Amino acid sequence: MECLATFDTTHMALLFEKACRGAGLSARIIPVPRELSASCGLACSYPCESEEAVIRICHEKRVETSGFHHI
Amino acid sequence: MPARSHYLNNAATTWPKPECVAKAMAAFLEGRGANLARGSASRRDLGTLDMVTTCRMKIAALFGGPDADPRNVTFTANVTEALNIVLKGFLKPGMRAATSSMEHNAVMRPLRRLEGEGVSLAVMPCTREGTLEPDTLARELKKGLDLVVLSHASNVCGTVQDLDRLAPLCAAAGVFLVLDTAQTGGVLPIDATGWNLAACCFTGHKGLLGPQGTGGILWRDDFASVCRPLIEGGTGSFSHEEVQPSVLPDKFEAGTPNLPGLAGLLASLDWLGETGIDTIRKREDELGRKLLFGLRDIPGITLYGIGTMENRLPVFALNFDGVDNGRAALELADRWGIETRPGLHCAPVAHRTLGSFPQGALRISPGFFNTEEEIELCLEAVSTLSRENPHS
Questions:
Q1: Do B238 and A39 touch (CB under 8 A)?
Q2: Looking at the predicted structure, is the pLDDT value of residue B390 above 70?
Q3: Does the beta-carbon distance from B56 to A41 stay under 8 Å?
Q4: Taking CB atoms and an 8 Å cut-off, how many pairs form between chains A and B?
């Protein structure tokens, strides 16, 4: 299973990746999979086991996502 | 021809630029070069995204402070395009707009076009020095307005409008206020958040010391949501939809942006951050004071605008008694290598207000990189031209 966050803007995709990496979590921006196509065109992977931490980081850093997906 | 030239036309565009600007543009074109949000998320692609995102962050902080959302910064080719997007995107027949009698044609021409299409337009008279009095704005607001658009400072004579007094009047009346910061961005503090600006329009190639072909808008959310984009097209986002995205910044950024320009702008913003706009302002004020006080003592010339350095930028408009200002500009260039700008400066209404229409004026505008010696040379040259003039 892969965990991906999607965004309305590429701006937020970049902030998400920086926020995760800043917290020591692996994250990588990728082209959004076609099944999740309704977004800015970029998604960002994050460690599934750290999803709670990722959501908390997004809240703290005011990073807005359009969804968290498990595919 | 003089061996050296002395660039005193910084109100048209600043020159020289910090060295890092051209280097950053060349580095982008030669070494990186990826498009924005139109790739495979490679390192090259993400490098461009990082560059543009950082540029948005710096612009948002510069014009709107720490609370401004960088997504609300949209880039354009220049401030003229920014003003066209805002004015034509919002004003519709039956609405009422007001502006000042000191505007550049970047404001006035879109407004006159809209007036011809049924928008009601009030041009608020300014003083002979180019100042818009708060009472004048208050009177117009009482009549009912949908939008006010103002230049922060005159490109003709440097007069700065007192936004600390004007902006609260618009806010209290619930009227959108749009600011043209073409002459003040990077030079004066601008508080788009505190002034509650609906849109803060900027250019990259003047006080921000970036390249031509860059500019943009810092939007307030509620205003952006009611403005229609001037152009629509690919954004690299929401590609499954055939209608323009409604989210910022994509709503107003169709098509590939000027990425080499933004690379240069980011470099100049870094340079501005390291140097400090207070330092730039202080230096330009020193040069301006020396020039103004010298000009005031030269007989046979008429100076326009504010006669002191209070509430003004170092942009000076003058005429020689009996000498055409175009001829004077040519003499300054040919004999002393001094580069200025004569004529109407794309601002006929401002020249009417100042009493210099239709002949226009000679505009002298020093910048951060000028020297005291260049100001002294300019004063000597103006004095010589005035002395030589048989009509003075």
A1: yes
A2: no
A3: no
A4: 50
